[in-house]
Amino acid sequence: MALAGTEMAITVDDLPAHGALVPGVYGFVNGAQVRDDPAYLEILKHWVRAGFHLGNHTFSHLDIDRVTTAEYIADIEKNETFLTDFARGDSARVFRYPYLHEGDTRLKRTDVRQWLAGRRYRIAHVTVHVDDWAWNDAYARCVGRSDERAIDGLKRSFLKAAMDRFEWTRAVSHTLFKRQIRHILLLHVGAFDALMLDELLRAYQNAGMTAITLRAAMDDPAYTLNDEIVWQGELPFLLRIAQARRAVIPPAPTIPLEGLNAVCR
Q1: E strand or H helix that includes residue 159
Q2: Would you state the pLDDT for residue 14?
Q3: At the topology level of CATH, where does 2-133+179-246 sit?
């Protein structure tokens, strides 16, 4: 998608974006989920028929920091084989690291990146993320109680968090690059995401967002930067660049996890 001088694409983890507004959406899939529940296969078929794409997210949602390089690469290859039935040319050769972990040593990070490049993979980074998954459990509890007032509160808190993160992303992009890079938004599959998707996209659009394909976003030269750092925990693209440059940026807006955990108890 792009926002008022900021372009942004959408990716969806674990595999519902609306094609008229958001083109070329990628769903990043772990084949192990289909192995464990074959009913998910129909979801993937519908996704591809709708004109969207599937990308590689490892077969087992492995954490690269907890396995060897050889184990990690083997799991990517296993998912590559699984995705063969859904791929259109090289469309599936887009990779997203689970947990946004790229390796707890520089050697591991470099070896996996070189392997991905040798197999013609492009890496889908993340610049906009809302931790949208955090609202799903609370929403399920409130639906179980038919508590519409609480659900309305969840909607308001989600949209506020989404816009706060969005504006923070734009501010950090300007600090680091003196421009708005082509942003990449990460969402997850969930009942609350499905409920809020239209409102979320309208809010972004009203803020100046213009939707673009993931491929177009990945062409931004910012994503060619190799920050040559290793890290612990989740670290989206802009935070990595800021850390590598030792740049001073504002803290990211927090997600109300404690409050969400208390809703509809």
Answers
A1: helix 148-177
A2: 52
A3: TIM Barrel (3.20.20)
